[in-house]
Amino acid sequence: MHRDGLARATTKQIARAAGYSEATLYKHFEDKTELFLAVLHERLPSLAGLLAAEPDGSLRDNLVAIAARTLAFYHDSYPIGASLFSEPRLLAAHRAELERRGAGPHKPVDGLTGYLRDQQRAGRIRADADCAAAARLLIGGCLQHAFLDTFAQREYDPAQAQQRAAALVDTLLAGLR
């Protein structure tokens, strides 16, 4: 599913890659949609892990770490997640499952907005700064990098991700301070 996307991956290919028969696959999953949702929830990091900040870390260091993890998250999830949009039934099932779990694509922005507001209250960010807009800019910049890398079929490069994270954060902080 990661290599070919959900729409092109067959249950026979998925079962073979996992070392099982297609019949065994159907003993555990009702259909490809259920299997896909299980893979997404198992393979993708938790929001808490993505947005973790060191209590003693500087604002910049914490944001760079968050951005670097977000870049890795989107790089890993973009190819398979983009498949959701090719099948309306799958997208609807995924959206319903996320709602049932109290999750969704807005959660990283919400979590980062909360962190930035805490930093604002501590005086590390300008009092008039729009923390929600800043969170959307940082998370959106990470998503854009993942899209471009996926489009160009570039492999994930941790050193490049770290540089990108620092550049995004430094630009963002120039406006927040």
UniProtKB/TrEMBL annotation:
SUPFAM superfamilies: Homeodomain-like (SSF46689), Tetracyclin repressor-like, C-terminal domain (SSF48498). GO terms for molecular function: DNA-binding transcription factor activity; transcription cis-regulatory region binding. Keywords: DNA-binding, Transcription, Transcription regulation. Residues 10-29 bind DNA. Residues 1-47 form the HTH tetR-type domain. Pfam families: TetR_C_7, TetR_N. InterPro entries: Homeodomain-like_sf (IPR009057), HTH-type_TetR-like_transc_reg (IPR050109), HTH_TetR (IPR001647), Tet_transcr_reg_TetR-rel_C_sf (IPR036271), TetR_C_Proteobacteria (IPR039536). This is HTH tetR-type domain-containing protein.
